[in-house]
Amino acid sequence: MAPDGRHLFISTAHGTPFGHLLEFSTSGDSLLGSAELGKFPATLQITPDGLSAYVVNFNLYGDMVPSSVSVVYTDKMVEVARIPTCTMPHGSRINPQGTRQYSACMMDDLAVEIDIRGMKVARHFMLAKGKEAGMEGAPASGMPHGAVSCSPTWVQPSADGSRLYVACNKSSEIVEIDVASWRLLRRIPAGEGVYNLAVSHDGRLLVATNKRGQSASIFDLASGKELARIPTKRKVVHGVVVSPDDRYAFVSVEGIGSEPGTVEVIDLIAHAGVASVDVGQQAGGIDFWKIESPQ
């Protein structure tokens, strides 16, 4: 969702061979434009000024080779850069200041930071347990992959941008990184197959989806304590977004086989699921549009 709430952007992953970014108007759902990207574009986010979209090219085709992040100027829907990063980038998130973009490298055990103004990789961080290290510049091309221990799927900046939270899907942990010093702060035990993350706007809570665990977790960020783990109605839990008032988390669930996808609503005060609605099959990414005033 664009910051102005008037434009919606969707990545279509399965191209022939390339995928696309589509722009829709939220008034009437009309298609406004499209841009061709790399192979299997996945997670995307719009910069706070609304001028650019950063989309990871996940690349599920063929050999596991380093892929990229596409930068699209949204006013003309033109790809202006394709920044090489790492193998299977995932989870594109931008800090609140709009100066840095972050993604995870599922097959390289890395988190990568892109300088938005320079449109180049500024730093990368090794996430393997016992080998954690922050480094300047882009990762070396041809890094070994396959024996990953973290397999990160999401990098979430904190509400003020001072910290990063990385979901280690394979080891079921959340890695916390200090942005200024580029050092590890702590590893937080998480639910089975922790996948996507979202922070509350007041900076107090972290919500995590547990893809293999059929649940979503709520963490207190000050202590790192898991406050609750709420089961979902269906399996293959995917995305999560927190409402602007920090009252609810909305979780997308893919479902299995012929099952519909589901959006489940979690009350962040009561720590309980309070509503659900069936949507299209294999519900993936999710974002928040607006809060309507009561009639």
Topology:
Blueprint: E1 7-12, E2 20-25, E3 31-36, E4 41-46, E5 52-57, E6 66-73, E7 78-87, E8 89-94, E9 100-105, E10 110-115, E11 120-126, E12 133-136, E13 152-157, E14 163-168, E15 173-178, E16 183-189, E17 194-199, E18 205-210, E19 215-220, E20 226-231, E21 237-242, E22 248-253, E23 261-267, E24 272-279
Antiparallel strand pairs: 1-2, 2-3, 4-5, 5-6, 6-7, 8-9, 9-10, 10-11, 11-12, 13-14, 14-15, 15-16, 17-18, 18-19, 19-20, 21-22, 22-23, 23-24
Summary, kept brief:
This protein is mostly beta strands and 295 residues long. It has no helices and 24 strands.
Order of helices and strands: EEEEEEEEEEEEEEEEEEEEEEEE
- Count of helical regions: 0
Give the low-pLDDT segments: none
Largest sheet at a glance?
Answer: 5 strands, antiparallel
**Number of beta strands:** 24
Compute the separation of the termini in Å.
Answer: 25 Å
Question: Helicity range of the residues?
Answer: under 10%
Comma- or semicolon-separated keywords:
single chain; 295 residues; mainly beta; 5-stranded antiparallel sheet; 4-stranded antiparallel sheet; 0% helix; 52% strand; globular
